[in-house]
């Protein structure tokens, strides 16, 4: 198949986009000749066919990355040079922000304004952050051994890294992984989601234009069971970084262990609780929690999908949350006003509707939403939904829905609230709404989650680590922790006077 296709992009007309494999800075076809198809989530109609990377393609990409790591990247290039190239890449992404935002919107169903201002904007910020951090992390000198020896540590890049990213934030997750890996000196074999591979491929052309050497970034569209598994099991890949479901994370961990025991970082699912106390500003809490659950149509691993409200303000809070659900701007992704687009696929839409039906059957009441958007016209929208009167045993309370559905119930005491919040296999994020500063501090320490927001929700920054407790993952992304995940520490003992 050809390695490029021409598509119609709203506001840009006909645009030529890559659909092949990017190996050693060249566009190539899959060695097997196989392809896979994608669907426009706003219409339910076919979108683009992409090359399906085979095991042999993975081998070729890994060889390219290994060669680059040994010659033109890794410790062969100063950290300042790596940072300068990442900065150049950020410049090019900023230059093309409108077009890449439109492509992201088209492929994923996000509102075009959201894609341009938030997804592209955050990706630019992440690349700039790691460009600046490239020469800031370093080892230690351990001069504690008198005249016997001198010891120091070196932070070195791990090597060739397989990176597997999800469909809910295709460009953003690309930047979250590529930024720290390249800053640390690693090379990358990237597999974007088979549902949303477009912008990861578009970024390859920008990386080449920025001057990033051949082999540093290789990108292989393909299915998880084939391309993803081949990456996870490849004996010459030194690390896997994955964002996605718990089930897939388990399979990747097993594959990594069964092959060469490669290092693994996982950012997995969530069922994040929000605790709203009587002292909270109800309107403010409702606004933050609404953003936390209905941003990206609820397709967010740290979405505020469970809310527990102290009984004295429960009715007032539910009314405030309902008004915000009904004010969501549902619409076509190409509309600048749209903030709530379709779900990614028919399968995902039906999964969400089944969770809503399950909640109803187990006794929950629907405050608003709970159905397909009447104007879907073949697309995959589900209305913003509030399920009330839920309890801890319900399937919709225990399992990650990954859609625009929030479950709510009451609590009486702080102790009960903590018990409810922690009664989950997940531990990605949580929020506390209270005007009692001491209560905030107690709860921030008591809730089992990697991110805690106090009187806020959902705001992330490139310099702040992100990751989960329990089934929500292993390791951290962003911040200095995110770059350390792509480095290994070597201790060097220099003998000065010791003799055998």
What does the secondary structure layout of this molecule look like, with pairings?
Layout: E1 4-9, E2 13-18, E3 21-23, E4 26-28, E5 35-40, E6 45-51, H1 55-71, H2 79-95, H3 97-108, H4 112-133, E7 141-142, E8 149-157, E9 160-164, H5 170-184, E10 187-191, H6 198-210, E11 217-219, H7 224-233, E12 239-243, H8 246-258, E13 263-267, E14 273-276, H9 282-294, E15 306-310, H10 314-327, H11 346-361, E16 365-368, E17 385-388, H12 395-398, E18 405-411, H13 414-422, E19 429-433, H14 437-446, E20 451-454, E21 473-474, H15 479-484, E22 487-495
Helix pairs in contact: 2-4, 2-5, 2-6, 3-4, 4-5, 7-8, 9-10
What does this structure look like?
The protein has about 500 residues and is an alpha/beta fold. The chain has helices spanning about 55-70, 80-95, 95-110, 110-135, 170-185, 200-210, 225-235, 245-260, 280-295, 315-325, 345-360, 395-400, 415-420, 435-445, 480-485; strands at about 5-10, 15-20, 20-25, 25-30, 35-40, 45-50, 140, 150-155, 160-165, 185-190, 215-220, 240-245, 265, 275, 305-310, 365-370, 385-390, 405-410, 430-435, 450-455, 475, 485-495. The chain has two domains: about 5-270 and about 475-490, Aldehyde Dehydrogenase, Chain A, domain 1 (3-Layer(aba) Sandwich), CATH 3.40.605; about 275-460, Aldehyde Dehydrogenase, Chain A, domain 2. The chain contains 15 helices and 22 strands. About 50% of the residues are buried. One of its GO terms (molecular function) is oxidoreductase activity, acting on the aldehyde or oxo group of donors, NAD or NADP as acceptor. InterPro entries: Ald_DH/histidinol_DH, Ald_DH_C, Ald_DH_CS_GLU, Ald_DH_N, Aldehyde_DH_dom. Belongs to the aldehyde dehydrogenase family. Pfam families: Aldedh (PF00171).
């Amino acid at each position: 198949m050809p390695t490029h296709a021409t598509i119609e992009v709203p506001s840009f007309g006909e645009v030529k986009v890559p659909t092949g494999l990017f190996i050693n800075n060249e566009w190539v076809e899959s060695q097997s000749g196989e392809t896979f198809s994608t669907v426009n989530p706003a219409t339910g109609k076919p979108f683009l066919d992409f090359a399906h990377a085979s095991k042999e393609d993975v081998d070729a990409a890994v060889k390219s990355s290994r060669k680059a790591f040994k010659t033109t990247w890794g410790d062969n290039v100063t950290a300042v040079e790596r940072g300068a190239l990442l900065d150049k890449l950020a410049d090019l992404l900023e230059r093309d922000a409108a077009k890449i935002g439109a492509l992201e919107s088209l492929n994923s169903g996000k509102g075009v304004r959201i894609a341009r201002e938030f997804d592209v904007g955050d990706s630019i910020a992440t690349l700039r952050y790691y460009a600046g951090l490239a020469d800031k992390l370093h080892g230690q000198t351990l001069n504690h051994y008198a005249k016997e020896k001198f010891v120091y540590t070196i932070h070195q890049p791990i090597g060739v890294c397989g990176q597997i990213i999800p469909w809910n934030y295709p460009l953003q997750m690309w930047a979250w992984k590529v930024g720290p890996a390249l800053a640390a000196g690693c090379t990358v074999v990237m597999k974007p989601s088979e549902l949303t591979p477009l912008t990861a491929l578009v970024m390859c052309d920008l990386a080449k234009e920025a001057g990033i050497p051949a082999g540093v970034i290789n990108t292989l569209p393909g299915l998880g069971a084939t391309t993803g598994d081949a990456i996870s099991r490849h004996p010459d890949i030194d690390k896997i970084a994955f964002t996605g479901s718990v089930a897939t994370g388990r399979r990747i961990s097993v594959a990594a262990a069964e092959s060469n025991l490669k290092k693994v970082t996982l950012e997995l699912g969530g069922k994040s609780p929000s605790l709203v106390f009587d002292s909270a500003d109800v309107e403010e809490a409702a606004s933050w929690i609404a953003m936390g659950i209905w941003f990206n149509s609820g397709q967010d691993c740290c979405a505020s999908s469970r809310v527990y409200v102290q009984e004295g303000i429960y009715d007032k809070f539910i009314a405030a949350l309902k008004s915000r659900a009904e004010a969501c701007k549902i619409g076509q992704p190409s509309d600048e006003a749209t903030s709530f687009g379709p779900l990614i696929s028919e399968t995902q839409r039906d999964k969400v509707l089944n969770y809503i039906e399950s909640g109803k059957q187990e006794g929950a009441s629907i405050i608003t939403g709970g159905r397909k958007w009447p104007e879907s016209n073949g697309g995959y929208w589900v209305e913003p939904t509030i399920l009330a009167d839920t309890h801890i045993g319900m399937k919709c309370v225990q399992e990650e829905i990954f859609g625009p559905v929030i479950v709510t119930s009451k609590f009486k005491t702080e102790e009960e609230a903590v018990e409810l919040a922690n009664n989950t296999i997940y531990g990605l994020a949580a929020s506390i709404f209270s005007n009692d500063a001491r209560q905030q501090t107690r709860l921030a320490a008591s809730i089992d989650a990697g991110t805690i927001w106090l009187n806020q929700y959902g705001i992330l920054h490139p310099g702040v680590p992100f990751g989960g407790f329990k089934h929500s993952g292993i390791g951290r992304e962003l911040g200095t922790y995110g770059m350390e995940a792509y480095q290994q520490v070597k201790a060097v003992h220099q003998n000065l006077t010791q003799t055998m």
